[in-house]
Design goal:
By secondary structure, this protein is mainly alpha-helical. The protein is built from 18 helices and no strands.
């Protein structure tokens, strides 16, 4: 009976998520916002149809969706494209990600006096959601150096965020598991986790890239890619590596060995995995607990402003170092505010990594997820407006 109920819930949620996303899309609001809001309404804070008991039973959906998201991120990275974008865009992406990471750690630590909580929030803050930004650029047919820079930065930002999160979570997990090591040892262990995740994923990518060369149809390509995503995730979990970084690295290698086949796989993942990803974000929304709002209100606003300050300052410094055009230096940071997407995926990873580690770990995960969902309301409203403002000031919006 439980299996039947789970299937009914998954099917209904997949249907409702897509319909809600479609409705939001008509108003030029990113569909992912609709998915999350649906989850909030159905979750424990409002209708309580999807209570924590049911959501925990559907954890396999989260694992599969996270793997698909990681593969899509890695599949968007191509060495030729990265070389074409140039060093300035890569530098801006690194600086704005690290800027958010460091500013959020510093300011939330001053507010909370909890270093591990601050590190995790900092790691999540490094991600930028491309969907809302790209939608504004497409809507106003923007063209120019600022537009090109924005598209390049948001295209590689998520990969940097995954690396930052892997480092940060490994450091914090060492403390939660009471591993008595020096800061240097913990840092080296974090670097080791990152390297083994990347190398393991790269090895899988070489094997998958070789196998894909003999495949002809989209169905075959999709089947092999999905199998390797599941296999890679499972092995990474078993070896206590970062499954997201493992799968992203695998996709990156496959993409550079067999670009056409990877594009075909990503196209299939975007099509067939669409209901899965929509369901994933709806499930993420169910974690919002309005009872926690009085507790997270203050730190949530500190996180919100620290992230914006870090993104804007970091992007400016990165652009300044490589003498990017003045409009890029002045305005690129204002176009990197949206966070919904990979940031929510990272918040769910926090729940997965820390939620089972006693009361302190559970509380850290709950607060991190809720702060992200709470502040997303503001970033998704202000983010597109600031992107439009930046493009107008740069003179890159076409008159319609």
């Amino acid at each position: 009976m439980e299996g039947a109920i789970a299937l009914i819930i998954i099917g209904a949620l997949a249907f409702l998520s897509q319909e809600t996303g479609r409705a939001f899309g008509k108003f030029r609001i990113p569909s992912v916002v609709g998915y999350v809001i649906l989850g909030i309404i159905l979750g424990k804070s409002f209708l309580n149809i999807l209570n924590p008991y049911f959501v925990d039973k559907l954890s396999l959906i989260n694992d599969l969706a996270l793997g698909v998201i990681a593969f899509i991120i890695g599949g968007e990275l191509n060495l030729r494209r990265l070389r074409r974008l140039g060093k300035s865009i890569l530098t801006i992406a690194i600086f704005e990600s690290l800027g958010a990471f460091l500013f959020v750690i510093l300011l939330t630590y001053i507010f909370t006096k909890n270093i591990y909580f601050s590190i995790i929030l900092g790691a999540i803050s490094s991600a930028t959601a491309p969907a809302a930004t790209v939608a504004v650029i497409n809507q106003y047919r923007a063209r120019g150096p600022l537009t090109t820079t924005i598209l390049g930065v948001v295209g590689i930002d998520d990969a940097i965020a995954l690396i930052i999160y892997t480092f940060a979570s490994t450091v914090c997990l060492s403390s939660f598991l009471h591993i008595h090591s020096s800061l240097l040892q913990v840092s080296l262990h974090s670097v080791e986790t990152i390297l083994f995740s990347i190398l393991g994923g790269a090895l899988f990518g070489i094997v998958l890239g070789y196998l894909l060369k003999s495949l002809k149809t989209k169905e075959e390509i999709f089947g092999f890619v999905l199998a390797f995503i599941l296999l890679g995730e499972g092995i990474a979990m078993h070896l206590h590596l970062s499954e997201l970084l493992f799968v992203m690295s695998m996709a990156f290698v496959v993409n550079n060995l067999s670009l056409r086949k990877t594009n075909s796989a990503i196209e299939s993942l975007n099509t067939l995995g669409f209901p899965l990803i929509a369901t994933f974000f709806a499930l993420a929304g169910t974690h919002l607990d309005i009872k926690l709002l009085p507790l997270i209100g203050g730190v949530g606003m500190v996180y919100f402003f620290a992230r914006i300050l870090g993104k804007t300052t970091g992007a400016y410094l990165g652009a300044k170092i490589f003498s990017a055009p003045r409009v890029v230096q002045k305005y690129v940071g204002f176009s990197l505010w949206p966070q919904i997407g990979v940031a929510i995926a990272l918040a769910i990873m926090v729940k997965k990594d820390f939620g089972h580690l006693g009361e302190e770990g559970f509380q850290l995960a709950q607060l991190a997820v809720n702060i992200l969902l709470f502040t997303t309301i503001f970033t998704e409203i202000l983010g597109p407006l600031m992107t439009k403002f930046s493009l107008e000031k740069a003179g890159e919006i076409k008159v319609r």
